[in-house]
Amino acid sequence: MLTKRLIICLDVRNRMVTKGVKFQGNVDLGDPVEMAAQYYRDGVDELVFYDIMASAEGRPIDIGMVRDVAKHVFIPFSVGGGIRHLEDMREVLLAGAEKVSVNSLAVKNPGIIREGARAFGNQCIVLGMDARRTTDPKYPSGYEVVIQGGRTPVGLDAVAWARQAEGLGAGEICLNSIDADGTKEGYDLELTRKVSEAVGIPVIASGGAGVPGHLVDVLTLGKADAALVASMVHYGTYSVEGIKTAMAAAGLPVRGKPSL
Question: What predicted TM-score, i.e. pTM, was given to this entire model?
Fold first, then answer.
């Protein structure tokens, strides 16, 4: 049985890790390279970095940060934010990242998924998707895709967009619930299950983790392949080891701590 991955997300703004609730009220927490190195030593499986201001400010991602992370972290990590075209993807991967995450860019230009998959392999291309509940009947799944931190709806059904992205060559989907983001009240199990059942590529559940039991729920009931956390480790409420111990106790296969 494939192991279930624990992934930590580091939102970065002005070279600092920052965290908010539903993309608002962000507080700076620390240096991304130092935090990443510590999480690696703690035994996390993967890391995700989002430069949350790059796209809004019309600039590329901080490549220097990516290079610095690659010097200290020897597990897979993906990078998103400020990716504008194929050359930006190439630069990020050459700087040491294993994967590139595209969100708003993919919505505006779906062909970038195909281009990236052809150039670097499907395994390098992650679709980042922010979705929220809706009662609008034009969204059959009950969830619509939004961009720009949940501010802008784009007229896409979440499940339909997941299937389209898979068809274009995305190798993984990082699925974030806008409604649950930062609330610590649990993942959106319905959203995660619907997308996981609709595609044949791995789905990372994101948004809402507050206690280890939430990860167990989304990896079983939600059928996710991996669970992403931020607040519950950034604030020291839980450790990587503690979360993995709880996952293993629930019968989930997990990876052991690496030998450093």
Answer: 0.93
